[in-house]
Amino acid sequence: MSTSRLTKWTNHESYFLGNTWTHSSVKETDQIRPSKPHGGFVSNWTVATDPCTHADLRNLHGTFVQPISQAISTELLPIFSGSKLAVNNDILLPSAVYWNDDKRFSTTRRISWEQKRDEVLWRGSASGGRNTANNWTRFQRHRLLSMLNGTQVQMAIEVSQNGHDATDSREAVEKTPRGRHNLPGNFPLPNQSLYPLQSSALGLLPDWLRSISNAAFTWLVCFPATRDYACSYTGAWYRRGVEMPFYRMFKAKYLPDIDGNSFSGCFLAFLRSNSLPIKATIYKEWHDDRLVPWRHFVPMDNTFVDLWAILEYLVAHDDVAKEIASEGQKWADTVLRKEDMLVYVYRLILEYARVSDDRRDEMGWTPAASGVV
């Protein structure tokens, strides 16, 4: 098998299995309960973003299903990257997408929280890896849009009420505008013992999602590729939405931010927008140590099983959502500026130069060398 066809999970499997917690959890998981949560919600962001603690991500994230591209090495050599997995030793730099003055990510038109809509808004391409007719239901972006689609959720509920497993697409076939298709079966229904959703208990979850959700793909990416933005095997379940400039997206209060082929690149703009980012990722970035989950943004498990409970809580506690969004914006304007990126890179260059120098033991700062007694 060629390296290009290996999954990234296969390439890192020896590392994953070396982790004692993961080694006991290599069996398939039920995608119902997040890893080490507090009340069903993310309590440890480091753990939540580490694939070593999530054996289920092998079948729930495009990076491990079939990545779009990858380059691996077993040799010791310095690699500078804008993001990395927890198992990698890349040296992190601020990504160019954060440095460039891209008008798409402009946050100059800031909108007050009170002027924003009670809306969950997401736009993006169906990226995340090489999705095919046989594996697309295992990709994270498709799963997010299915979970925000009231019609798909309603169909899954009806299948479950008929005694079938809602995550098994073979159990039901639905009539769609393009013919009869198996349900995607790419998400579980709420676990009422862990997430006692009021909307779910009253049977209102599908209608509630329709009232607050505005999520669509701008490009139904297919493999093999098509000449237009459509896709034969996913087009029955996902509408293609028009691309939306960020200043229009920032009119919504809630902005999910999830991985594509790598990290999304939208996070910094979302933080600065005074809307509330709801973030799930497996990728580490340069600024991670500067941000505090639940204070500057809302963390979400990579299975997304906590998504509906997060949204229901935030919509019902608008003051809490507003405070987190405001704190995130103020902190991003304080510690994630271009000046902060420059200082970070300058210090990184100094440290790298020192460890690369044969005289590294003589180059450290000491009180005697500095004239301080």
From TrEMBL:
Domain Glycosyl transferase CAP10: residue ranges: 53-357
Pfam families in the cross-refs: Glyco_transf_90
Organism domain of life: Eukaryota
InterPro entries named in the record: CAP10 (IPR006598), O-Glucosyltr/Glycosyltrsf_90 (IPR051091)
Entry-linked PANTHER family: CAPSULE ASSOCIATED PROTEIN, KDEL LYS-ASP-GLU-LEU CONTAINING - RELATED
This protein's name: Glycosyl transferase CAP10 domain-containing protein
Originating species: Lithohypha guttulata
Upper taxonomic lineage: Eukaryota, Fungi, Dikarya, Ascomycota, Pezizomycotina
